[in-house]
Amino acid sequence: MKTKYILLFILAITFVSCGEDRRKEYAPRINANKWIVEVMRDNYYWHEDIPEDNKLNFYSVPSIFFPTLLSSKDGKSGSRYSTMEDLSEVETTTTRSTEEVTYGMELSFITDKNKTKTYLARVLYVLEDSPAKEAGLKRGDWIFSVDGAAINANNTKKLITGSNITVEVGTIDEEMLPVTKEPVEIPAARSMLNNPVFYHNTYQRGSKKIGYLVYNSFVSGEDNDTRYLEELSNISNEFKTENVTEVVLDLRYNLGGELNRPVPLLCSMFAPEAVMGSLMGTVKYNEFNQDKNWTLSFLEEHLNGGSNLNLSNIYILTGSYTASASEAVINFLNPYMKVTLIGAKTVGKNVGSQEFTNTEEFPQIILQPIVCQIFNSEEKSDYASGFTPEYLIDESKQDMKELGDPEELLLATALSIIDGTYTESETPETRSAFDTYRSTLERKSQTLKVEN
Predict the structure, then answer these.
(1) Is residue 236 part of a domain?
(2) In this structure, are 174 and 250 located in the same domain?
(3) SS3 string of the chain?
């Protein structure tokens, strides 16, 4: 009984100081958390895993409160799929547009297996007309330092945006020790438009015309337009005009994005003509929202003036960043055509999120919980552990040529499989002491977003 009195006394001190009741100070926080719980209990896909109200701390700040609601099924490797932004606390980090102030390069960071220190950064790709491009950086370059300091967990952001910086760029040997180093000054970051349609081209191999498309994000356009959808449609017409019979779709750096428009367009471009009009897949919500379930189909209208290429095979390049909408494309096409995966195992995100706001009462809070799961026409959604490619290749262990170069490792593999010259080479030696553990791509949303 004595313990209970002590507990009550402590609570009283918490909310009453010098005779003043401080509980009113917590009212905005409590009300915000009550709204968050209401949204989550109604819409969260794993709502049954949310703790009862009496086990929740409504006095917590929303950014701390929100994670306590999430299911163990939500995310992997310590990262959650469902997210919440509190704009009053920190600057938003979710990419809501393809335009951002940046140096125009995407990097992966290499560390030791214990992840105790970042040692190196490697350039994955560089945008045209960007500060990084002006500085002469290119895909595959190794960066050893920034402004005279070794790269570490505290200064990696300096390689994304800011004023002009000086980096040491060079090459490494098999032990990952620098062979060459030279200082390179990168001009100040500026507003860059990161077009998801990064590159496309065609290649002639014997009698086969092969189309290649590097697609880095499922985004319709900017400022509510559909410019990127139109670009995809135009590419499909180019491929059709050039009599493309095989396609290599490069999704290795595509973390996902919108489900509603880009995914049906891309799938309708590549699927066999005979399946047009057929079911593509189904989006399923929790038991409280079954009326929201909806289907996607292969339709002419999705092409937006583009062309169906009537393919029987497609070759998709994948990586450890390939997630959500990218995986949905793989899953949707699998029942209808031969889908050959080349590269690394994908993330394994078979669920989608929806954005919720309360602009009148809590304009600073943006919720994006997982609300649904994605199934193909055969009711399959069994890739939560990721898709494992038929041809497993780790590009991080190799020299990197520019995307689109026919000798670039993953593209060269696909081209040789298509033309029948592929021979399985020895597995590259693993750099056992090191690990690719982070990337600048992670600042971009991986969540498959749905609207209906």
Answers:
(1) yes
(2) no
(3) CHHHHHHHHHHHHHHEECCEECHHHHHHHHHHHHHHHHHHHHHCCCHHHCCCHHHCCCCCCHHHHHHHHCCCCCCECCECCCEEEECCCCCCCCCCCCEEEECCEEEEEEEECCCCCEEEEEEEEECCCCHHHHCCCCCCCEEEEECCEECCCCCHHHHCCCCCEEEEEEEECCCCCEEEEEEEEECCCEEEECCCEEEEEEEEECCEEEEEEEECCECCCCCCCCHHHHHHHHHHHHHHHCCCCEEEEECCCCCCEECCCHHHHHHHHHCCHHHCCCEEEEEEECHHHHHHCEEEECCHHHHCCCCCCCCCEEEEEECCCCCCHHHHHHHHHCCCCEEEEEECCCCCCCEEECCEEECCCEEEEEEECEEEEEEECCCCCCCCCCCCCCEECCHHHCCCCCCCCCCCHHHHHHHHHHHCCCCCCCCCCCCCCEEEEEEHHHHCCCCEECCC
